[in-house]
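Hi all, long-time lurker, first post. I run a small reading group and we've been trying to get comfortable going from sequence to structure in the token notation. Rather than ask abstract questions, I figured I'd post a concrete chain and ask someone more experienced to write out its structure so we can walk through it together at our next meeting. Sequence below, copied exactly:
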Amino acid sequence: AFSAPRTTPGAAMSRAALAVGMAVACAARALALDSELIMSVVVSRHGVRAPYPPRFSTADDYTVWTDREWPGAAEFGQTQEAFENQYLTPQGEELMVIMGAYMRERYTSLGLDVPCDSMLVYADGASHRDEQTAHNWINGFGCPDVEVVAANATNFSVMEPVVSDHNPGMCSPANEEQTSGLYGGNLDALLEEFAPAFALADPVIDVSPDALVCNYTGAVLEEGEACTMEKLPYEWTGQYWNGMFYAPVSYLSAFAESWLLQYLSGVEEVAFNMLSLQDISQIYDAHIKTLWFGTSWWNSITYGSTELGYVLLSLWSKAYDAPLLYFQPTDPNLIIIFSHDINVLYLQRLIQANWLVEGFYQNVASTGGCVEFQLHRDTSGDFFVKVSYIVATPDQQRYKANLTVADPPSVSEIVMPVCGELYCALDSFRELVFGVANADCMSGSEPIMDSYLFLQKTTSSDEGEDGADAGGGGDDDDDMLSSAELSAAIVVPIVAVLGITGFLIYRNSDNGYGKSGRAVPSQQDVAHQRTAAALGGARPPGIPPPPPPPPPP
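-- Answer (accepted) --
Happy to help. Here is the structure in token form:
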């Protein structure tokens, strides 16, 4: 699906980098025929899981809302423990094996050789379902013995801000005013937008006339008026996973997701047999909208900067054999990260992408779906990034369809506005990332932050300190490219290579220190061993701990 450019608050894109992008655009469509895929970085949501209950409810007790008896562990084929903790359903596990097998065939067909020892696999170690997803996926991929690095605050913590959906660094999430601005502060209009969805959902939920949810939320009802979901009041929470606030649409979101997960899990009686898949998809748009509020521009910068910065550093390291990330090799052919729908949507927002896939409304982040960043090298030795969103359709998931290159999942190819073409020059992609990913938000993963700042300072064509940050960047007052900017557009690729060469020399010198003052490890120190398999979450030799945080003001 082609994405339309949209205004993004405070995003300062280098005009020099845009000139680079325009210079290569003419050849981009022919590039697919004479380029080589050399690497892929994949960020995947976990597979189909048990649903979260709506507010004020437990996994199998919805009596605060309705007298209906909701499907429980038995219907999903799970133990009570697995159901209550939202583990993958048995079908969800099978589906990830199928997706892994498809991705192996996909890469083989695209000419990318992925030996098992050329893979890096990360998962959110604070989420068991992400680890389940990773193990099933690599089993289908044919590499069941590859280690899954389950990163969290105590194990391989350098990657925890990448796999987590809520590491803010030194940044702040969206406030109420900013979030309200996403719908113009008009809750009535928001309710009206989803009136058809409520009309479909209300008879299925069958909220009791005297439901306790109205008491618990302080809903104002006229004498004798029945409790309905549309009567529930607005409540600001600041919780990104429920759209930052409670309102009728966010409450509807929970039921919509529950019905879709019933369908995808193969539950026999979905939504009490009262809704078609088309109905469920229409109602599920309330869930997409809720997550859209939760992954606003501000939240995506705050929580997604480390993730996007990591993607760039991994691609750049592969392209130039540059050890920008001491904790992993420079030459993996495939890196895959298993996390959450929120993580996928942070990336979607930051790279200004839009996608549309069969069976879902626009910009869905469904179970098992992933954003794929392919790194290509053309015959001239130039590098390009191609981005896709890949997900099995609802029916493919429900019926466990065998996914193949001949019968694939839904694939939406992304054209990022900064490039305007499917194959985006790596230099242009770098400038896109510099324009949106804020290094301050990477605090908590100092090795990633330091490498990002180094690359930004060494290769950015912008003048000034360390490039752009959230809400600001270069001076955009001039409408035309200056001669200096035109020169920068020409020399950006050269500067990039020279900068990395300088870094390789500098890192092996006696006084090789990064921006933070911590020693940059030599190749002998790290030996490019398998991430957690070698490091086990510990700091490699020669890397002192980070300095203590400054005292509070």
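A couple of things your group might point at:
The radius of gyration is 24 Å.
Residues 478 and 484 are 13 Å apart (CA to CA).
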